[in-house]
Write a structure and sequence with these properties.
The longest helix is centred in the N-terminal third of the chain and has 18 residues. The protein has four helices and twelve strands; from the N terminus they run αββββββββββββααα. The chain is about 20% helix and about 30% strand. By secondary structure, it is α+β, with helices and mostly antiparallel strands. It has two domains: about 140 residues, Jelly Rolls, CATH 2.60.120; about 30 residues, no CATH class. The strands form three sheets. A five-stranded antiparallel β-sheet has the order 3-4-11-6-9, with no helix packed on it. Keywords: Apoplast, Disulfide bond, Manganese, Metal-binding, Secreted, Signal. It is found in: Secreted, Extracellular space, Apoplast. One of its GO terms (molecular function) is manganese ion binding.
Length: about 210
């Protein structure tokens, strides 16, 4: 057999063998090291069925708070089985008058399905174009990765949605909290938001910020 053909066959065999032993999953070892690609894997002998089951999405979240909304996450920290699989989920409860303020998920696209009530939802593109719609039970909407988006209760009853993400750890940054719930000096906040001193101080007090 010519050496080149032998080499190619050997490489093909190695690829086949390596693919046949590819990991089926990587359940997160939450006590281990977190890397940019996810948590270290739990030893397979320690993996159980419960690592692939999450029961929290059937229970309503507590909406007795400032925004009258609650998010119940099934991210890798709560659901180790999603580690490395590029997916996670959450339940969203929004009481009448409630809102999930403008926020972003830096690491994931979001897919929302309304399961109860009416939700007005939308996002803003980097070209500052706004896409929003009133969604009823059974309707769904996409929010592209990293873009500012929001959800508002659009009716007189509690609204519920199930959302999925294209990452086990989508990340979250709420714009109003990022601006007013920290110790960034008010004078700087006023410069970057064009708000006056009284309004900035009012929002800082409301959201727990200082400075």
């Amino acid at each position: 057999m010519p050496p080149v053909i032998f080499l190619l066959l050997s490489l093909l065999l190695l690829l086949l063998l390596s693919s046949s032993h590819a990991a089926d999953f990587c359940v997160a070892d939450l006590t281990g090291r977190l890397t940019p690609s996810g948590y270290e894997c739990k030893k397979e002998a320690a993996v159980t069925t419960n690592d692939f089951v999450f029961t929290g999405l059937g229970k309503a979240g507590n909406t007795s708070n400032l925004i009258k909304a609650a998010v119940t996450p099934a991210f890798v920290a709560q659901f180790p089985g999603v580690n490395g699989l590029g997916i996670s989920a959450a339940r969203l409860d929004i009481a009448p008058g409630g809102v999930v303020p403008l926020h972003t998920h830096p690491a994931a696209t979001e897919f929302l399905v309304v399961t109860q009530g009416t939700i007005c939802a939308g996002f803003i593109s980097t070209a500052n174009n706004v896409y929003y719609k009133s969604l009823n039970t059974g309707d769904s909407m996409l929010f592209p990765q990293g873009l500012l988006h929001f959800q508002v209760n659009g009716g007189g009853t509690t609204a519920v949605a199930i959302v999925s993400f294209s990452s086990p750890s989508p990340g979250l940054q709420i714009t109003s909290f990022a601006l007013f719930a920290n110790n960034l000096p008010s004078a700087l906040v006023e410069k970057v938001t064009f708000l006056d001193d009284a309004e900035v101080k009012k929002l800082k007090k409301l959201l727990g910020g200082t400075g």
